[in-house]
Design the sequence.
């Protein structure tokens, strides 16, 4: 009888241990499912890139050597290479492709050891096509190879029809919009793109400025190259630009349709952060 009671005590103790383990097991399972959900929604994929950008980018300028030395950057590129973004929601997909474009541009600069201008890569790769560096098949996403041109002109522009991407895609030149010191994320993408627009159009007078006295708006060649993304007519472009200009008087001039458009010179110098 005593043996039976002892056996019952052991069984009861085992049941208590099982009951104690159930909440912990449930929490672990929920945590696991949550992690997978984060990966599927696009959150978490770009955390390493976000951390690197915060360390190696300042005022839009890039420490390319820092990215080159970082094993985290190599691992992030490996993540991009094996991740298919097609299952993500719209904003997460767009954020993914913007991050991929910017990351692989940094990788390309480093792969060629370039520290002066991306156009030097163009000259070395002239046989690849008129786009030079942008025609190099060097980016891998979801197991497929892409050129930078394919990412921009096949995966981003015709799919999302979002003109503000031109404030976010950075081709490693000072003439580009500044590289953001954080990764893009679907949950904050709208605010990030708007902020990039304000930075590009209000903080870079050598690239974009309104001269009301001369009834002229000076704009980056980016708006000449991709003007159709902002609208079919010049007035459509100027109205789009006006949204990101802080001066009320400048906004009124832009939307009046009376300003002539002139283009500033594009600076192809590498957006290199000084040591």
Sequence:
């Amino acid at each position: 009888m005593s043996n039976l009671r002892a056996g019952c005590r052991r069984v009861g103790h085992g049941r208590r241990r099982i009951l104690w383990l159930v909440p912990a097991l449930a929490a672990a399972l929920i945590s696991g499912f949550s992690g997978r959900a984060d990966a599927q929604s696009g959150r978490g994929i770009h955390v390493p890139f976000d951390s690197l950008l915060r360390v190696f980018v300042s005022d839009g300028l890039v420490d390319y050597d820092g990215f080159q030395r970082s094993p985290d950057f190599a691992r992030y590129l490996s993540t991009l290479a094996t991740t298919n973004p097609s299952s993500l929601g719209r904003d997460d997909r767009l954020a993914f492709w913007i991050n991929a474009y910017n990351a692989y541009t940094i990788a390309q600069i480093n792969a060629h050891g370039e520290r002066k201008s991306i156009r030097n890569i163009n000259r070395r790769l002239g046989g690849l096509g008129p786009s030079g560096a942008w025609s190099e098949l060097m980016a891998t996403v979801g197991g497929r190879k892409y050129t930078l041109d394919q990412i921009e002109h096949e995966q981003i522009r015709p799919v999302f029809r979002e003109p503000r991407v031109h404030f976010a895609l950075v081709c490693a030149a000072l003439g580009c919009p500044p590289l953001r010191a954080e990764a893009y994320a679907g949950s904050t993408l709208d605010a990030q793109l708007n902020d990039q627009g304000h930075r590009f159009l209000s903080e870079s007078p050598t690239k974009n400025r309104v001269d009301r006295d001369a009834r002229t708006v000076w704009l980056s060649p980016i708006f000449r190259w991709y003007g159709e993304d902002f609208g079919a007519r010049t007035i459509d472009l100027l109205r789009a630009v006006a949204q990101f200009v802080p001066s009320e008087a400048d906004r009124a001039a832009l939307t009046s349709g009376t300003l002539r458009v002139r283009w500033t010179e594009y600076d192809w110098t590498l957006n290199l952060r000084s040591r």
Summary: DSSP finds twelve helices and seven strands in the chain. Residues 2-41 form the longest helix (40 residues).
